[in-house]
Amino acid sequence: MKRFKLPLLSLFAASLFLACSTEEQPEEPKDSNKGNIIAINVYPNVTFKTLINSLYVSSENGEKPVQADRTQTGSWENFIIEHLGGNKVAIKGNNGKYLSSGNAMYPLTCNTQNIGDWEVFGLESLGNDYYAIKGSNNKYVIYDHSGDKLLWSTSYNIGDAEIFLIKGVPSTPFGLNSIQLIKDDMRLPHQGYPSGVPIELGWALQPRISYGNNPPDDWRAMFIWGQVYTDPSGNPSTNTRFQIRNLQAWYLSKTDGKWRLWEKTSSIAGANYAEDFQGDINIPADIRDESNNGGGISSTLRSGFNFHFWPNKNRISIDPNDIAGVWVSMESRLVVNEINKPDDRRNARMMLSAGADYWSSLTAEWDQWKTNGDIGIGRFRYITEKWQVFNMHTLSDAQLANNPPPFDN
Predict the structure, then answer these.
(1) Nearest-angstrom CA–CA distance, 134 and 13
(2) 173 vs 266: CA distance, rounded Å
(3) What distance in Å separates the CA atoms of residue 301 and residue 142, rounded to the nearest whole number?
(4) Which partner for 354 in 225, 371, 389, 390 could form a disulfide, CB atoms 3.0-4.6 Å apart?
(5) What's the per-residue H, E or C state across 381-403?
(6) Domain ranges for the chain
(7) How far apart are CA 376 and CA 213, in angstroms?
(8) By the 8 A CB rule, do 252 and 243 touch?
């Protein structure tokens, strides 16, 4: 079988299938976990399309096992995903019953009232809304495209038949972010020292909160940003770029206690700045559009310069007196620069930190930190071949426990 390769992506996961049946099936062993699992988030109107043949998966209204043989979507081709935490999900058909893997004894079927081990699947993102799904038996769901078009949780590897286009789930792959990671990104020291940053600066060795939730009363704007550095040992890779997408900034409103979106975008601009930012010295960066490779942009570092980036749009208006908390996140990974040259991503030593600034106004020019200042600067972590989320926040432990940011949104 021809193996499907998404451009520059690591394929690491399993696919997703659905069956809704009233046919007699082998007796299901008792499952002590049935009914004890609670969803974190629920996503209605989710569709699944096979990579092979581009056909939609249908619940068959519970009259037989699910099949991938539809060219259009209707109620039978719309499913509900319940996010259980991490990359784990349960899938419900239009008949109101959960999809079961059958522990590979029978095809995937929507025939279960409650969530047990067999109804839990692992969604693994392959980029561009493509996923593979793994059953509780640790095997991938496979589409029997040459036979009866059923789905089985029986495959050990990912090929074309194990890949599905899933629409209706968050753009951030399940399981990339967590409360613990959000905490760590403001508590732990940097994984490496950002080259060229003066040691006396408060963010040279560890994350920091500056203005936090308290901008000056007359400051009325904010701007999300990030920065990429190498460590003092340098970056030995010569054919590696870093890709960045899904910049987002939210604030917790004092008025109603709800999280409000300031901005979310993958339209990104940036430049190579002097590592210490002195004199605001910067030069144009080598920016490549990655819209067809998972989204956002990619770029590179130059000796003596970092890569400083931000949304490719204007600053965001704020009410400085309504901020009880701020959360910023973005995603990054390493990609190959030229595909006809050796892949040396494993040699790369580039780190990313997330941050944001308050500004005195939407149009104020930079004036030696008189018109702007950082809300906070997150932890530097090394960028790897797999997508990671990088965070900055101003939240207390109590806020994170009782009113966490919408990191699954």
Answers:
(1) 7
(2) 15
(3) 41
(4) 390
(5) EECCCCCEEEEEECCCHHHHHHC
(6) 41-167, 179-402
(7) 10
(8) no
Residue whose C-alpha is closest to residue 228's, from 299, 287, 289: 299
- Quote the CA–CA distance of 366 and 338 in Å, as a whole number: 36
Identify residue 323 by its one-letter amino acid code: I
* 236, two tokens: 């030995």
Burial of 129 (0-12, 13-18, 19+ CB in 10 A): middle
Quote the tokens at residue 408: 């699954």
The residue among 30 and 38 whose pLDDT is bigger is: 38
Burial 84-106 (b: 16+ CB within 10 A, else e): beebbbbbbbbbebbbbbbbbbb
| Conformational region of residue 213, where left means phi above 0, alpha means psi within -120 to 50, and beta covers everything else | alpha
Radius of gyration of the chain, Cα coordinates, nearest whole angstrom: 23
In terms of Cβ atoms closer than 10 Å to its own Cβ (0-12, 13-18, 19+), residue 4 is middle
Q: Give strand ranges (E) for 168-274.
A: 208-209, 221-230, 240-253, 259-265, 268-274
DSSP 104: G
pLDDT tens, residue by residue, 114-134? 999 999 999 887 777 889 999
Residues of the chain above pLDDT 90, percent: 75
Q: Which two tokens stand for residue 320?
A: 């400085």
Separation CA 73–CA 404 (nearest Å): 35
Three-state DSSP state, 111: strand
Query: 């990030």: which residue's tokens?
Result: 226
Distance from the Cα of residue 270 to its chain's centroid: 21
Q: Rounded to 5 degrees, what are φ and ψ at 247?
A: -75, 130
Rounded Cα gap, residues 114 and 30, in angstroms: 12
56-58/67-70 β-pairing = antiparallel
Rounded to the nearest 5 degrees, what angle is found at the Cα of 181, between the Cα atoms of 177 and 186? 130
Tokens of 373: 């200042």
User: Sign of torsion, CA 360 365 370 373?
Assistant: positive
Helix ranges, 247-350 (H): none
Is 41-167 assigned to CATH 3.40.50.720?
no
User: Residue 152 and residue 173: Cα distance in Å, rounded?
Assistant: 23
Amino acid identity of residue 297, one-letter, is I
319-367 pLDDT tens trace:
999 999 999 999 999 999 999 999 999 999 999 999 999 999 999 999 9
